[in-house]
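Quick start: what a row looks like.
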Amino acid sequence: MGLEYLKPMLDVGSPRVFNCNIMTHRIQAQEPGAEMFFRNKVLNNLVLIKDTVPDDGSRSSAPPIGTKLYFPFNENEIYEGGRTIFVHDKHVQQVLLNQFGEGALKKEALIEDMRILHIMDRLPSLDPFLLKDVFLNEGMTINPAYFEVSQEVWNEIESFILQRFEPLVKAAFPDAKSAEEKGRQLIEKIWEARDLEALKPLTMAFQLPSGQELEIFAAWKGINFYAFQYQRMKTQLVEMLTWLKDLELPHAVPVAERNEVKASLELARTQVRDEWRRAEMILREYQESYDKLFGQKSGGSGSVAGFLTFLKNSKKSYWELGNSLGKVGHASYCWDTMSRRFPDRKLSWDGLKETLQLIVKIFGPAKKLATSVAWK
């Protein structure tokens, strides 16, 4: 894998990548001595990547997405290649010790760093908003410079999500209608998804499964975030889909090579379209059940049941939606990075081959891998 090919796969900007290495260099250049993301200095050379977990039959009940740690061969030029291991791998802590040496990793700091990694592993994607929000809710102090989300965008997302919570609070807590302050506090409790006692009337009204209530509320918030992101991504994604649809391959190339690229093109078209439709289907199901619940559309006697069913399945929907939008967002980012400097996005033959291969790789089926793999 060449440098230009690997670069967009690891770049800051993709919803499936947290490039701690690049961000740390930027932050330290602007403010020497600024607090780093990880407590152990050497871990800030890592890149974290969301990827499909190879199906080996041992994680049937676990999410299909894992978090890879990418160890660059050269920390000053990470695009030369490196090795990876999933955070959930039982050997991950030993691999960290082997990679950096026990002398470079302080025991207490490593415990805190492992907690950070496992928190990030609980998310379907690595969007800055989700990262900032989860660490705030966990009460962990992280340098906000690592979350590239402006206050304006944060407020916009927050407002969008809170507006989705408000009608349900008013429906489940009738007295909140005449007590604005209490209503606001209840909405904040849903946002934080930590105070089960305060939310008990809501969990009872929705008949949520015991022991899963807080996870469901957190997943519901995540789904609303992805609904917001869906609208922001749509324009560029449509542009990429149009580019794939209208792309014509030149004939002045060897037939075998042209056929290979044609196969990649057809596969990329199918993969992007199918994943986008999967995300749209989840969001449409959510929106329709939500609208029916509040009588915005005719729903008959099944109006409430539809939303409650969606809510009870929200954990699964949250991961599926995050996975789908993460993939199409990563593909869209890589496509834009590889093609935007060319007039009308008309790439060279080699550039076209690499771009299509890259898109296919993002959506490609997971393979059973050894604990560590080399990116070449």
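That is the whole record. The CA atoms of residues 65 and 100 lie 26 Å apart. Residues 255-293 form the longest helix (39 residues).
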